[in-house]
Specification:
The structure holds two protein chains of two kinds. By secondary structure, chain A is of the alpha+beta class. Chain A contains two helices and five strands; from the N terminus they run βββαββα. Chain A has one domain (2-100). Chain A has helices at residues 42-54, 81-88, and strands at 9-15, 21-25, 28-30, 61-72, 75-78. In chain A, strand 1 (9-15) and strand 2 (21-25) form a beta hairpin. Chain A is globular, with a radius of gyration of 13 Å. Chain B has three domains: 1-118 and 310-414, Alpha-Beta Complex (Sulfite Reductase Hemoprotein, domain 2); 154-304, Sulfite Reductase Hemoprotein, domain 1; 421-555, Sulfite Reductase Hemoprotein, domain 1 (2-Layer Sandwich), CATH 3.30.413.10. Chain B is α+β, with helices and mostly antiparallel strands. In chain B, a hairpin with a 5-residue loop joins strand 14 (378-381) and strand 15 (387-393). The radius of gyration of chain B is 23 Å and the shape is globular. In chain B, the strands form four sheets. In chain B, strands 16, 17, 18, 19, 20 and 21 form a six-stranded mixed beta sheet that branches. Chain B has a five-stranded antiparallel beta sheet with strand order 1-2-5-4-13. In chain B, strands 3-14-15-12-11 form a five-stranded antiparallel beta sheet. Classes of the chains: A alpha+beta, B alpha+beta. Chain A binds chain B through residues 14, 16-21, 56-59, 62-63, 79-82, 85-86, 89-93, 96-97, 102, 104, and chain B through 38-41, 45, 59-64, 92, 94, 106-111, 355, 426-428, 432, 434-435, 437-438, 441, 484, 487-489.
Chain lengths: 105, 562
């Protein structure tokens, strides 16, 4: 997946215990895309993915992968609809998910 | 709740015996142990994934999704209240009824799953075999046991198949999933011909009851209608025959290519005649062994659980007058029952603007009350993502309707253009390419006018967010398939499918429409139908008579197809 992406990228995964969407920041994870690291080049993105993959044995998160983002009006947004929805929550239930401020501790 | 004094009614449905309770309890303990081992790191994700899938637990876009089996769509009020409780306690206060007549929760935490499974076991429910490469939840006719059309109630056989196929040692690791449906009427409400295997209860020329067996139907990437394997299988032979079909599939299916692993691919590769020959050979071997005969007393024992309720005699057969809105609802949502003075009532979870198949905890609780007060404690889940009260007195219909209005579940649209099937799509599903639900909502609002809906008549729209076809788009009179083009959603139109007794595979019209174009395209297709139809023709009939061309020309008029 990493080598199919172009431009700005971010790294995501799901938390093991509750499935919540995570984003990579430094050598840890945050719950909101807006707070996460952006990798401007492939080398940085690959390094972050490699580090996360090495941490899978900690059993805190699953299925890390890179995805493309872009800057729109000064804001970082995912390129693909899928990642926009993952970052916010289901479009049909705006009262649920991160878009509604529902962050699992 | 309708009335806190409403007493839970125990409907006539299968109840766990000691063995069932022990089996499910042990399975809960086993999976609780597996969850604990995963959380502690003793199991890797690769090791855990097939185990969780066999227990109906998926990891979706936002959280885990738990799929709960509703065998042949039958739920008691006690079970419905438990689902409401789970939604309230462990999820976000709503659940989603699916096209496989199951219920899904979308916001489940892995750490809560053992507790949820224990709560489900308390009301004789589980998630076993709602996912994975095994025999899935057996589905049936939502009017079973209530309609006068059926030869006999199909649920006893569905229950026997459920028991036979649950953790069947030979069929726990099939090449792919395997879906079975059972029906007993000429009118097919269970999409029999779209199943991996289906049984239709029939009578032969001598008037003896037996089973017509079909196999090789399926949706997904390569849609096929099932072939008849046998026109008539004797009662006592049915399990041996079904086992023969599954055994041939298990032995001969391709396991090297995920797109060619379903039984439909096998049958269409070797031809139905060759498949019948192989099945017959296995069947004769099984018969010779004599180990899978279905004893009459066992069939009777299971059938007794589903005995017809004691319907009140002497009831009026007249539906009371309760105004024009009620009359509209009766026209589409109330169906003939076999007992005088009774009716079958469909609750469409499809009020225009709603998410098809969704119900909140409060709505589930109130429906449970309605079940107890008016329908002998029972409800059915349909593959069209609706609910059915199977046994209601006609005199109670106005009270039921009034309560459904309060719930916003009183839309008079069963079978009409706004009674749309939609899979969860990209709003939830990890496999989806595009959203389904917003398109369903948009179309339902577009065609909300009831006069127009009746003018259009029976028209089934079915929407899938990917080629896996959970939204049955191949079987829609108008099907819609969501596709991804460089991260953007597009929607292909598929015309002429049917999931009924006149089953057919829809034809893809051409390139997809953008999210904001698809409703206009559907409307133009419907307008062609209204202009071209002859007296009494449904949309499907007109399409079959005139073909794709005029619909296609209209649909693409002014659209920037991609």
């Amino acid at each position: 997946m990493a080598h199919q992406n172009q431009g700005l990228q971010m790294l995501t995964a799901n938390r093991l215990r509750d499935g919540d969407v995570l984003y990579r920041k430094g050598d840890g994870w945050v719950l909101l895309l807006a707070q996460a690291d952006i990798y401007p080049d492939q080398a940085g993105a690959d390094a972050a993915l490699a580090a996360a993959t090495a941490e899978l044995a900690r059993n805190e998160f699953v299925a890390p992968y890179l995805f493309e983002v872009r800057e729109v009006n000064g804001k970082i947004v995912p390129v693909k609809e899928r990642e926009i929805i993952r970052a916010a929550g289901p479009t049909v239930h705006p009262h649920t998910g991160k878009q509604a401020g529902q962050l699992n501790a | 709740m309708l009335n806190t004094l409403v007493k839970a009614v125990a409907p006539n449905m299968y109840r766990y015996d000691e063995f069932d309770a022990q089996f499910v309890g042990e399975r809960v303990n086993q999976f609780a142990g597996q969850v604990a081992r995963r959380l502690s790191g003793e199991l890797t994700e690769d090791q855990f994934k097939p185990l969780r899938l066999m227990n109906g637990l998926y990891l979706q876009l936002h959280a885990y999704m738990l799929r709960i089996a509703v065998p042949y769509g039958t739920l008691s009020s006690k079970q419905m209240r438990k689902l409401a409780h789970i939604a309230r306690t462990y999820d976000k206060n709503f659940g989603h009824f699916t096209t496989r007549t199951n219920l899904q929760f979308n916001w489940i935490k892995l750490v809560d799953v053992p507790k949820i499974l224990r709560e489900l076991a308390d009301v004789e429910m589980h998630c076993i075999q709602t996912s994975g490469n095994c025999v899935r939840n057996v589905t049936s006719d939502q009017f079973a046991g209530a309609t006068d059309e059926e030869i006999e109630d199909p649920r006893p056989l569905a229950e026997i198949i459920r028991q036979w196929s649950s953790l069947h040692p030979e069929f726990v690791f099939l090449a792919r999933k395997f879906k079975i449906a059972v029906g007993a009427t000429e009118t097919d409400r269970a999409a029999l011909q779209w199943h991996d295997m289906a049984v239709q209860i029939v009578k032969n020329a001598q008037g003896r009851v037996g089973y017509k067996v079909m196999a090789g139907g399926g949706m997904g990437r390569t849609p096929y209608i099932a072939h008849v394997m046998s026109e008539f299988v004797e009662r006592e032979d049915i399990l041996a025959y079904l086992e023969a079909v599954l055994r041939v599939y298990n032995q001969d299916s391709r396991r090297d290519n995920i797109h060619k692993q379903r039984i439909k691919i096998l049958i269409n590769a070797i031809g139905p005649e060759e498949m019948r020959r192989r099945v017959q050979r296995e069947f004769e071997e099984l018969k010779r062994m004599g180990t899978l005969q279905l004893p009459r007393e066992e069939l009777d024992r299971i059938t007794a659980y589903f005995a017809a309720p004691k319907f009140e005699p002497g009831l009026s057969d007249i539906i009371p007058d309760a105004g024009p809105d009620f009359a509209d609802w009766v026209k589409t949502n109330v169906h003939k029952h076999k007992a005088p003075g009774y009716a079958i009532a469909t609750i469409t979870l499809k009020t225009p603007g709603q998410v098809p198949g969704d119900a909140t905890s409060e709505q589930m609780d109130t429906i449970a009350d309605l079940m107890d007060q008016f329908s002998l404690g029972e409800v059915r889940v349909t593959h069209e993502q609706n609910l059915v009260l199977p046994h209601v007195r006609k005199r109670d219909l106005p009270a039921i309707y009034a309560k459904l209005r309060e719930l916003d579940f009183a839309s008079p649209n069963a079978g009409l253009i706004t009674d749309i099937i939609a899979c969860p799509g990209l709003d939830y599903c990890d496999l989806a390419n595009a959203r389904s639900i917003p398109i369903a909502q948009k179309l339902a609002k577009r065609f909300e006018n009831l006069t127009r809906q009746h003018q259009i008549g029976e028209l089934k729209i079915k929407i899938s967010g990917c080629i896996n076809a959970c939204g049955h788009h191949h079987a829609g009179h108008i099907g819609i398939l969501g596709v991804d083009k460089k991260g953007v959603e597009f929607y292909q139109l598929v015309l002429g499918g049917s999931g009924a007794e006149d089953a057919s595979v829809g034809t893809i019209m051409g390139p997809g429409f953008g999210e904001h174009e698809i409703a206009d395209a559907v409307e133009r297709v419907v307008d062609v139908y209204l202009a071209e139809r002859k007296d009494g023709e449904r949309f499907l009939d007109t399409y079959r008579r005139i073909g794709m061309e005029k619909f296609k020309a209209a649909a693409y008029q002014g659209a920037a197809a991609a």
